[in-house]
Every structure is written in structure tokens, then in C-alpha cells.
Amino acid sequence: MAEMTDQEKQLVEWLADMNEDDAFALAKKMLLEEGANPLRVLELCRNAMDIVGKRFEKGEYFLPELVLAGEMLENIGAIAKPLIKQAPGEEPRKLAKVLIGTVHGDLHDIGKNIVTFMLDINGFEVKDIGIDVPVKTFVDEISQFQPDVVGLSGFLTLAFDSMKETVEAIQDAGLRDKLKIMIGGGQVDETVRNYTGADAFGTNAMDAVSLCKNWMGVAA
Amino acid sequence: MTTQQNDIQMLAAKAAYDARWQRIMDCVNLKQPDRMPVSMFATFWLAKYGGITNRQLMYDYAKVEEIGERAVLEFEPDSHSPLVLQCALGRSLETIGFKQLQWPGHGVSDTQPYQYLDREYMKADEYDDFLFDPTGFYLSKYLPRVAGAFEGLDELPYLPGLHYLRLLSGIIPFINPRIRESMEKVIKAAEEVKRLNDHQVEFIARMKMLGFPTAFGTTSIAPYDLIADYFRGATGMMKDLYRNKDKLLQLLDKAVVFILRQTLAAAKQWNHPIVFIPIHWAPDAFMSQKQFETFWWPTFRKLMIGLIDGGLIPMPLWEADCTKRLEVIRDIPAGKCIYWFERTDMVRAFEVLGDVVALRGNISPSLLTTGKPEEVDAAVRHLAENVFHKGGKLILDAAFGLPDETPVENVRAMFAAARKYAS
Q1: From the list B115, B369, B371, which residue is nearest A107 (CB)?
Q2: Are residues B173 and B156 in contact, defined by beta-carbon separation less than 8 angstroms?
Q3: Who among B243, B286, B370 is closest to A192 (CB)?
Q4: What is the pLDDT averaged over residues B172-185?
Q5: pLDDT value of position A92
Q6: What is the pLDDT of residue B126?
Q7: Which residues have a Cβ under 8 Å from the Cβ of A144 and sit 6 or more positions away?
Q8: Has residue B373 got a pLDDT over 60?
Q9: Residues near B89 by Cβ (< 8 Å), separated by ≥ 6?
Q10: What is the mean pLDDT of residues B100-124?
Q11: Cα(B70)–Cα(B75) distance, rounded to whole angstroms?
Q12: Does the pLDDT value for residue B416 go beyond 90?
């Protein structure tokens, strides 16, 4: 991105340091009083989220910071997005498409939502199809959205069979070779990955980002 | 059977009961038991074992007792969880109009387990209300939000301030039909819960007669987990660590007091010293060590010390991986607790905590549900050789009890291996 002014650096720093009140007040002032380019402000937010992601990866940040970062991004986005006048073409190109959902029988969504957020701020186009997703819905959504990666989420042990059924259905629909499948959730491990036929498993949001980046040949 | 045969059988069952209980208590007291105890904790696995649906398990008291007894007699655990209370909740949940769970017939299918609905049951701006008057907050706000039977109570008069002759006019709202209806519903629900408890009491007595102790009487909760899970919701709580830090800390301090009072009373009612405490928010991945030591651990430690001072034995189940927390959670009087671990490496837990607490766990759910009996056997052997035979006071169990889908042959393998490798 273009070199940052001191004010812009301040915004990035406050966002990355979880200084929510100051960051929000500054972003609001820049957007509503000083006429800053909303796309530039969103770019600064992404820059800050990059730092948040790296701190998460290093074990300095944990789930509370990811959740608060998501909230800050959403709040600033709510002011910035209506101000965007330029053509949508200025949006940075996405690295790849990821379809994600919690498998059928399981209603848990906290982990899935955090993975969705982390993939999004890391440059992926993510489609979240919700919880308790039937096998057929996964197959239909894959056919339409044509993702590069499918993420199957599940917290309960019943999810092992649901994940296995979903992977098999993707295979039966002739879609398996065109995508990678990752599974995630509190109970997954290599034994479950092997059982379900997924390509990889992860136990936290950074695992998901690293897997997707590796598969897409992007430096993690 | 003659009276004499009956007496002999009763004496044998009592001896077996005492030996099993001694095994557990030896572990708690950090003494070497005669062999590694193995415990049974089951919920919906019983439906699979008994060949019925989860819905039947939740609604049929007699069936749960029958299947539970069959399982206990087949596997002969050194302790069993309160199987009836954990399973046959359907009627009680229905009568009270419980809103925080979806269970078979109420939001999920007959073959699914019940699942918790993570929501904001208390808003971020309600900390002051809760802090000022927890009972008032429960009556007029919290209970109506979580259970339909309480809905009319949101019109209760504000009780503090009713004194002398103001007491008279102050009680007029009690004739409100919504409040009256609510009270009737709560009484009806209480009668159903009493029936459930009576079945549990009968089951405990019957198991005792057959020689099998219960693993714990009542449950409790870490103050942080109480507020995160049942009030603010997962994401609300995480934001509060930044946005409402001081009020959250005040509320956690207050929660210790009422959780402790409530747990001491419940333990007395069940007449059992062991208190099961499922732990949700302590894992390494959930918060930083600093956050853990600021928000999570201090009030939980206070609670455990209060329980210990009350003559009880806390048994927290540390869910997920808590390896980074081991040094911190070591700070507890020796020989007073059972630490049950889910994904934390048990050998590592033994190295750090072996001289302080008994351990429980932790055959992995993925292995139990998808593995072969010989793999389960090997996993038990690993724990027997590397924890129990090295002096660890280990009560063998699955990582968080038997996963619902576990094939019966894998449960057989787990119990057989416990006896084979650690007698």
C-alpha cells in the first residue's frame, strides 16, 4: 500500500493494539469530517488486521482479540462502505474461494465464524453456509460457488460421521478432484481426518489460513 | 434365594462397593490404590448401548435405569456418573420451558444429542443491574429469558424498599395473572424435577446395593464459565475482556460467593463429596496466559478452596488442551482434587501435577469412535505404563466420558485393558 501518513499509522496502531474507542473515533473523523477515501480507510483496516493475524500466529493474541478485531472492522466498515463511490473493481483480488459450514447434526458456530473471519482478513473470498448443513446443500453450494477449498466444521463427535458423509457425497458428485477439503473443530485430529477422507485438519483459525495459503501456493 | 445367600450377596456387594470407593479415594489422597480405577461417564452413549433413540433416553425414566444398570453390571466401573440425571431430562426441560437447549423433539431429531444455544442471555449494559442485586436480576430478567415457566416473573414488584406498611401495597402485583400462572408453572416443573431426582436417588441406592459407587454428587461451575456460557455468550464475553473489564472482574468476584453457597447446599443434598466441574474456557487456545491469570484462574481457585474447606473434592474436567495452564493450576492444596483432562497430554499432566492431584481421563474420542479395539487397548496401556505404574494416581476414563457413537466393543476394550495393564 502507499506510504502512510502519521494519522494513518496511528489508526493502524490503535486497531492492532485493540484500542477500540480511539481507533473508532479517529476512523469516524477521517471518514466523516476530513473526507478520507473510504477505500483507503478499509485498506488501513486490512493492514491492521494483518498485524492482528500475525500476533495471533505468534501466540500474542487469542480469541478475544480476533473477536474484537472483527467487531472493530465491522463498525468502521459500516461507516466507510456507504461512502464508496468508485467502481467495485478497486477491491483487491481475492486469493481463492472458500466455502465453509458446520456439518449436519451439529449446531455449533463459534469456531466456524472465527475461521471465516480469519480467512476473510487474509484475502480469501469466503462463503459461510451456516450450521447443521445437510450433505446435499454442501454439494449444491459447491456446484454453484465453485470453491477452491471446502471447510467442514463440527464440535460434536457426531460430526465425524457427518463429515465423512459430506466428503463422500462431494466425491460422488464428481467435485472432489477440483477442491481441497479441510475439517476443523474441538475433537478433530489425524484419526478423524483419516476417517472422514478430508485432505487436512486444523484445531484453530490460523491452521485454516495456513492450509488454504499452502494449497493456493501463497507464502504463509 | 435363602436369607443366608441373600446376606452373603449383600456383604459381597458392600465389600465390592467399599473396595471401589477406596480405590477412588486412594487416588484423591495420593496413595497408591490396589489397581487403577476405571470410571464410567455416559450420556447418549447409553441410547446406542440400549438400542433406543436419544429421545426415548431423555423421556423414559425406567428405560434409562434399566440400560444404566445393564451397562454398570457389564463393565463394572469403579464409579459411575449420575446416569439418570444426565439423560432423562426431557420431561423436566419441557415442563420448565427450557430455552437454552435444543433436544430431541425440541429443535433436533430423535437421534441427536441435546445441544446448547450460545446466545447473549444478558446484555453488555446489564452488568450494573446484576452487580447491584443478583437475586432481582435473576427473578425479573434472567430466569424469564432462559425458561418459559418464569416468564410472568418479569412483572414481579421490586422487593427491596418494601417495608412496614409499604409492604402491603407493594404486594398487589402478586395478583397479576401472569405472575400467578408463572408460579403455578414453576411448581409443576419442580414436581417433575423432583420425580427425576427421585429416580436418580433410587438408581444410586440400587447401584450401591449391587456394589457400585457414584462418581460425583453434584456439579459446579467456574465463575468465568458461568458468565461466558450462560449470561454473556461466547463472543459477548470475549469483547467484555476489553470493553467491560472492571465490571466483569467485580461480577466474577460476586459469582464465587453464590456459586459456592449453591454448590455446598447441593453437595449436602446428594450426600457425596465429589463435585464435578466441567471447564469450558480455560484451554490454551482461548485466551492469553495473562488473561487466564487475570480473569479465569483467581475466582476458580477461590471456588475450589471454598469447596475444599467445605469438605468437598472438586473434580474439574479441563476441556481441550490446557498444557500451558498446568503450572498455574498446580497452585492448590495437595491431595484434595481430581483433575480430569480431555486433550492435555496425560503424561505431561502427571509430570507437573502428579504430587498434587489425582488425574482422570483421557482416551481420545476420535480413537474411541473410529478406532479398533486393539488401538483402544494400546492407548490404555500407554496411560497405564506411563502414568499409573510411574506413580500417577490415575482414574481411567474417556476424555470427556464415552462419546455417544462409541462402538460397544471399544468400551469393552477400554475396561478390559484397564484391568489387564494396571492390576
Answers
A1: B115
A2: yes
A3: B370
A4: 95
A5: 67
A6: 98
A7: none
A8: yes
A9: B58, B103, B114, B196
A10: 95
A11: 9
A12: yes
Pairwise CB contact (< 8 Å): A107 & B117 = yes
Give pLDDT, residue B93. 98
Per-residue pLDDT, A89: 57
Which sign, positive or negative, has the C-alpha torsion A140, A141, A146, A149? negative
Mean pLDDT of chain B: 96
Task: Return d(Cα B83, Cα B69) in angstroms, integer.
Answer: 9
Question: Which cell numbers hold the place of A16?
Answer: 492492532
Q: Which residue has the cell 474417556?
A: B398
The Cα A183–Cα B271 span in angstroms is 44
B405 touches chain A (CB under 8 A): yes
Do A64 and B238 count as a contact with CB atoms less than 8 A apart? yes
Residue A92 grid cell? 483487491
- Contact of B57 with chain A, judged by CB distance below 8 Å, is answered with no
Position A91 scores a pLDDT of: 63
Q: In this structure, which amino acid lies at residue B152?
A: G
Name every chain B residue with its beta carbon within 8 A of the beta carbon of A186: 319-320
pLDDT at A87: 57
In the prediction, which pLDDT does A1 show? 67
B402 pLDDT more than 90: yes
Cβ within 8 Å of residue A153, ≥6 positions away? A100, A101, A102, A103, A106, A108, A109, A111, A112, A115, A159, A183, A184, A185
Give the per-residue pLDDT at A220: 58
Cell of A5: 501518513
Of B108, B115, B242, the CB nearest to A64: B242
Which of B112, B285, B371 minimises the CB distance to A204?
B285
Contact B404 A158 (CB under 8 A): yes
Mean pLDDT for B138-142 is: 95
pTM over 0.90: yes
Assembly ipTM: 0.90
Spans of chain A below 50 pLDDT:
none
Inter-residue long-range contacts of B254-262, CB under 8 Å, 24+ positions, other chains counted: B254/B131, B254/B134, B255/B223, B255/B226, B255/B227, B255/B299, B256/B223, B256/B299, B256/B302, B256/B303, B256/B306, B258/B134, B259/B220, B259/B221, B259/B223, B259/B226, B259/B303, B260/B303, B260/B306, B260/B307, B260/B310, B262/B220
What count of Cα atoms within 13 Å lies in the side-chain half-sphere of residue B174?
8
Amino acid (one-letter) located at A47: N
Q: How confident is the model at residue B21 (pLDDT cuts 50, 70, 90)?
A: very high
Is 90 exceeded by the pLDDT of residue B296? yes
For the stretch B265-287, pLDDT in tens is 999 999 999 999 999 999 999 99
Q: Do A62 and B366 touch (CB under 8 A)?
A: no
| In contact, A159 and A185? CB cutoff 8 Å | yes
